[in-house]
Specification:
heterodimer, A: mainly alpha, B: alpha+beta, seven-stranded mixed β-sheet, six-stranded mixed β-sheet, 17 helices, 21 strands, 20% strand
Chain lengths: 334, 553
């Protein structure tokens, strides 16, 4: 088991190396450079040259690439051109916000997704099932930012039930340790702050969760349908094993395997979905910062953040693979 | 039996969901009503403004962008401010000033002013600040940091036109320049020339910026310890989220009703509008023209700034046809500015006759104008050798997905202008780009034709308009006109406003005869506020200090 994990981690090295190449040249291929974005409409050629010199963008691409790679190996991800703070610092500062939002969205998508998918499969062919299938199709096709604006318009602007933007009411004087605001509020006993932070998660969380939720509903439904018609379930029923055992151990547990794979894939997608969602809700996580970095051609941030996300994604996939072996011991033997 | 339990489970889940929503609603109502009642009666004294980004630095000496200036103006004051509602210089920390000769300025300072750290504001503090900026070296002296000192004083140390500063007494300081510069006093109204506490600057190593050239890092002072004399004191900054300021109890001027200012970062324009509508901010800047009517109908108050900007149609003379003055004149005659303004620009927008707004020194009332006259345009085109069988074909560049104060809706402006040009027989070949790409195209090479661009002035100085546009040969305009470049260089070194007035009037005439582009309009920038904001001190140069904000609830 450990050896498998070790091998997988070693395999990450060439993958990430390839990614640095792709990333670097993709970012450099974006039209317009950071100097122009930084200086605006009245940039003289001298000023553009000065900024390019300052950040080394006037050097040959190959030299720039290897300089960057060399710095990466020393753990130096460079400095954001917009904020002039280290990229690692910017990432660390914003990541808890995105983590909090993503975890909320995953819990929502997985919890509701499995429940609804299972429920739909059990009502196979009936109205509830048709409704679930239709709703999940709608969930997959509706663009995230569109849904985000609609949710905000209804629940924040028209009804005023939920906050429209940010992570916490700025008027609250909340204490922060972990920068996971809900957790911080609970830890310090500042219930107002925790509740306020939680409210700020609801709308962006729903927007972010919609697509994975819809996918999980469909996968769970299909998987449960397949398993509940299999021979061993029928045999089990014939032998008079209790319904709850059949549902829990026989059907749900076996049906979950493809669902777990899907969840792993969706977590990666959530991180990219966060770019749109966070921008719409002015939610200060890595997504909204990355969106701004694209607009301002903040090369170091683009390269650094995407690399961080790739590493995270790889680690999550590894975790998913490992969790397989707990759900299905056959995987472990192989 | 099982069915019953499942139903019960579902009903329970539904009840929880409904309960959560109801609770949430109660909580937000409670928040709405429960303001921080520590001011006058029932007024919530916290003013929340929706900003589009964080301040780049808390040290105004290293500031050059609008978002940074907005925050700096609350905490800092310079020797010179502006007359409220105008771009004209007015006394601030300096009660008055005299100019005994072309290069000497004697400032008489306000007495009884203290910095936020309790130290006294005096002539020595003034000299300390000017000497400090002139002494910047390395990264601090680069154009990405102390931009305005570099531009206004034309360099640092011995290279600059700064001659020195002496404290004649506690409350009188004399600043000398090495050469005459009429724009000096108006330039001092920029937040970059704020007077900061020398004690705090030294204590928190304000000059220690950036370890290396390619990785400049703000000093400890610039990250967390800004110390000025303004009505608000720095409280905290959470990058990407908000910057919080509180009222300075010992402020020398009038403190006003606002006791806490929160600049909330909301990058997306639509998100800013929705934040106002949902009550999470009290106001925001640069309202999109498309939102004006609906916001007004919904009861929000709209505040217009006097436009201190210009939108123009640039004509790149390196592009085919455009080097011919007849063609440029034809295009100028083909444009109906009034139609453009009525149809696509915000209400209150004024047509431009030259490349600067009327408030700027040197604006010329009698400048040559090219009236809307499609027939004259066609005649000029014919003279230049273009007719129906051989029409003038030009590339029209414009940016997309961007809104600037001088150009709120480039797509609509383009559509309007291109139909006007087509009406006189010009074939328009539209080329669109995203903003950064667009700027790169304008500045990076000659591969563009006629284009939309503009500028908002920083302070009342004609060089800040026509000097930045036409001071030297650029890719944007693609012409070489040594006569014009020379006139602008000369005008920059004039000593008094009277001399400037005459020189720039002549320059404006010279420009309009040469016609490098068509000045189109001075669009009105609009801010939107919650009803409870009863007064906002709108300023054409955004010199808006929130001790003047008035709140009703």
């Amino acid at each position: 088991m450990l050896r498998t994990i070790g091998r997988r981690i070693l395999l990450l090295v060439p993958t990430l190396f390839g990614l640095t190449l792709l990333l670097f040249f993709w970012v450099r291929a974006l039209p317009g450079g950071p100097a122009v974005a930084l200086l605006g409409e009245r940039a003289t050629p001298e000023r553009i040259a000065e900024i390019n010199e300052l950040y080394g963008f006037n050097q040959p691409l190959v030299v720039q690439y290897f300089t960057w790679l060399g710095q990466l190996l020393q753990g130096n991800f460079g400095v954001s051109i917009q904020t002039q703070r280290p990229v690692t610092e910017e990432f660390a500062r914003r990541f808890p916000a995105t983590l909090e939002l993503t975890v909320f969205a995953i819990v929502l998508a997985v919890g509701l997704g499995i429940a609804l998918g299972y429920w739909a499969a059990r009502r196979h062919g009936k109205a509830g099932d048709h409704f679930a299938v239709f709703a999940s199709l709608l969930g997959i096709t509706i663009p995230v930012f569109f849904l985000a604006y609609i949710l905000k318009w209804i629940f924040a602007v028209q009804l005023g039930w939920l906050p429209s933007d940010g992570r916490q009411d700025p008027r609250l004087d909340a204490t922060h340790y972990t920068n996971l605001y809900v957790l911080d509020g609970v830890m310090t006993g500042e219930w107002d702050a925790a509740w306020d932070a939680f409210q700020h998660l609801i709308l962006p969380g729903i927007a972010l969760a919609t697509i994975p939720l819809a996918i999980i509903v469909r996968i769970t439904r299909a998987s449960v349908l397949e398993v509940q018609n299999s021979d061993y379930v029928r045999t089990g029923m014939a032998k008079g094993i209790s319904r709850s055992t059949i549902r829990g151990r026989f059907i749900l547990r076996n049906a979950l395997l493809p669902v777990v794979t899907t969840i792993g894939l969706q977590v990666g997608l959530l991180l990219s979905g966060a770019i749109l969602t966070e921008s719409v809700f002015a939610y200060p996580g890595i997504g909204s910062f990355l969106a701004r970095a694209i607009f301002t051609r903040d090369f170091p941030v683009l390269q650094g953040f995407i690399l961080f996300i790739a590493i995270l994604y790889a680690l999550i996939n590894l975790a998913v693979d490992v969790s397989y072996s707990f759900i299905d011991p056959r995987v472990r033997v192989q | 039996m099982l069915h019953t339990s499942r139903r019960r489970w579902l009903a329970g889940a539904a009840a929880i969901a409904v309960g959560a929503v109801v609770l949430t609603a109660c909580a937000s109502q409670r928040e709405g009503g429960g303001a921080t009642d520590d001011g006058d009666g029932d007024v919530d004294t916290t003013f929340v403004f929706g900003a589009s980004g964080d301040p780049a630095s808390l040290d105004p000496a290293f500031a050059s962008d609008g978002e940074t200036f907005r925050v700096a103006r609350q905490m800092f004051e310079g020797l010179v401010g502006t007359v409220p509602g105008t771009a004209d210089p007015a006394p601030l920390l300096a009660k008055s000033w005299e100019q005994p000769d072309d290069t000497t300025y004697v400032f008489t300072l306000e007495e009884g002013v203290t910095f936020h750290d309790g130290t006294d504001f005096n002539a020595e503090a003034v000299c300390f600040n000017f000497d400090r900026q002139n002494a910047f070296t390395g990264v601090a002296a680069s154009q990405s940091m102390a931009y305005y000192w570099g531009v206004i004083m034309r360099g640092f140390g011995d290279d600059s036109i700064y001659g020195g500063c002496t404290a004649d007494s506690d409350y009188q300081a004399t600043i000398t320049l090495k050469e005459p510069f009429a724009g000096f006093i108006p330039a001092l109204s920029l937040p970059s020339f704020s007077i900061q506490s020398p004690t705090a600057l030294e204590e928190y190593g304000a000059d220690d910026v950036g370890g290396t050239e390619e990785a400049p890092v703000q000093s400890e002072y610039g990250q967390a310890h800004p110390t000025g004399t303004g009505p608000f004191v720095f409280e905290s900054m959470s990058p990407g989220e908000q910057t919080v300021l509180t009222a300075y109890p010992d402020y020398w001027g009038e403190q006003g009703v606002v006791e806490e200012v929160i600049f909330r970062v909301i990058g997306d324009t639509t998100a800013r509008r929705q934040a106002l509508e949902s009550g999470s901010i009290d106001g925001y800047d640069l309202v999109a023209p498309a939102d004006l009517q609906s916001l007004e109908d919904a009861g929000f108050s709209l505040v217009n700034r006097d436009p201190f900007n210009v939108l123009y149609l640039g004509m790149n003379q390196a592009a085919p046809g455009l080097s011919d003055p007849k063609v440029r004149q034809a295009i100028a005659h083909a444009v109906d500015k009034q139609q453009l303004i009525t149809q696509v620009l915000p209400e209150g927008t004024v047509a431009a006759t030259q490349f600067m707004p009327e408030a700027v020194i040197g604006w010329n009332e009698d400048v040559t104008q090219y009236e809307y006259d499609p027939e004259a345009a066609q005649a000029l085109l014919a003279e230049a050798g273009y007719d129906e069988s051989n029409p003038l074909t030009i590339t029209f560049n414009y940016p997309v997905n961007i809104s600037r104060p001088y150009m709120p809706n480039p797509e609509q402006i383009f559509t309007n202008l291109s139909s006007q040009l087509e009406a006189v027989g010009i074939v328009v070949n539209p080329v669109t780009n995203e903003w950064v790409e667009y700027l790169d195209l304008m500045q990076g090479g000659s591969d563009h034709g006629i284009h939309l661009l503009g500028w908002t002035g920083d302070y009342n100085d004609p060089d800040n308009f026509v000097g930045t546009f036409f001071g030297l040969q650029t890719n944007e305009w693609g012409f070489d006109n040594p006569e014009l470049f020379g006139a602008l260089t000369e005008a920059r070194g004039l000593a008094t406003e009277d001399e400037q007035e005459a020189a720039y009037q002549a320059i404006n005439e010279q420009i309009m005869q040469f016609l490098p582009g068509v000045p189109l309009a001075h669009p009105v920038p609009t801010l939107a506020f919650d009803e409870r904001v009863t007064f906002y001190p709108a300023s054409p140069v955004q010199d808006e200090v929130y001790n003047m904000v008035e709140l009703s609830e």
